[in-house]
Design a protein that fits this description.
binds NADP nicotinamide-adenine-dinucleotide phosphate; NAD(P)-bd_dom_sf; about 45% helix; SDR_fam; 7-stranded parallel β-sheet; 7 strands; 9 helices; about 250 residues; Rossmann fold; oxidoreductase; about 15% strand; KR_dom; alpha/beta
Length: about 250
């Protein structure tokens, strides 16, 4: 059975992705940082639907925890064929003039370093060079990488710009090793993340200004991720799907 690891699989886009991948025959490793109950609920929902899943705690910004998470998958005999680097954070909306190093480093530690570390561990397991059977990685970037998110969170936007560059560079490094690497750049999606920015209702405020005049649902991102991971996308690597309602 193919195994998919979804980082930040306990809530929002990660949760929707974990549920959808399970429906499409993946055994899903549901990673979470702190909300154990939310991750357990995703696992239980998958099992109720006849799928296979387990939860795995790790803060992806911590190298030792990332290494331990991948080792625990190995110990369960899971052959990793898909990785979704979905975990990401942002903080209170503000301007660059108000940012400090501590916050910038925290955002980058999870969104950039954490994504790099998970990519590294996955490559070591998937790459032909390391005796693997190939696989696919999807990074969850953001439309913010293109917009810059001025007066909201330029630090977050810049971290997603780095994720885009990682996607491109790694895709080219491992293209001949049986691994495809792509990214999805969601626009405004209804999740709890906006509350972390201090504006829980942000999607509804901005939605009327979007070409499609509505926010997106986590499922609409999960479907793009599913496709990029699937054999239907077998000749697609190093590229991006903008799922942002036309923005
Ligand atoms: P969310 O609802 O806030 O959920 C975040 C998830 O990431 C949770 O499962 C959380 O785990 C996990 N997480 C956070 N930091 C982590 C860490 N250091 N290690 C492991 N897990 C961690 O977020 P979301 O809106 O679904 O966003 C998912 C991804 O989509 C992010 O990369 C985000 O940047 C991107 N995105 C979102 C939107 C949007 O409009 N929502 C738009 C563009 C891009 P716990 O539950 O344990 O806290």
């Amino acid at each position: 059975m193919k195994t998919a690891l979804v980082t930040g699989g306990s809530r929002g886009i990660g949760r929707a992705t974990a549920l959808l991948l399970a429906q499409h025959g993946y055994q899903v490793a549901v990673n979470y940082r702190q909300r154990e109950e939310a991750a357990a609920e995703v696992v239980s929902l998958i099992q109720q639907q006849g799928g296979k899943a387990f939860s795995v705690q790790a803060d992806i910004s911590d190298e030792q925890q990332v290494v331990a998470m991948f080792r625990s998958l190995d110990q369960q005999g899971a052959v990793l064929s898909a990785l979704v680097n979905n975990a990401g954070i942002l903080f209170q909306q503000t301007s660059v003039a108000q940012l400090n190093a501590e916050r910038i480093n925290r955002v980058f530690a999870t969104n950039v370093t954490g994504t790099f570390l998970c990519c590294r561990e996955a490559v070591k397991r998937m790459s032909f060079q390391y005796g693997g059977q190939g696989g696919a990685i999807v990074n969850v970037s953001s439309a913010a990488a293109r917009s810059g998110a001025p007066h909201e969170y330029v630090d977050y936007a810049a971290s997603k710009g780095a994720v885009d560059t990682l996607t491109r560079g790694l895709a080219l490094e491992v293209a001949a090793q049986g691994i495809r690497v792509n990214a999805v750049r969601p626009g405004l999606i209804y999740t709890d993340m906006h509350a972390d920015g201090g504006e829980a209702d942000r999607v509804n405020r901005i939605a009327p200004t979007l070409p499609m005049q509505r926010g997106g649902e986590p499922d609409e991102i999960a479907n793009a991720i599913l496709w990029l991971l699937s054999e239907a996308a077998s000749y697609v690597t190093g590229t991006f799907i903008d799922a942002a309602g036309g923005r």
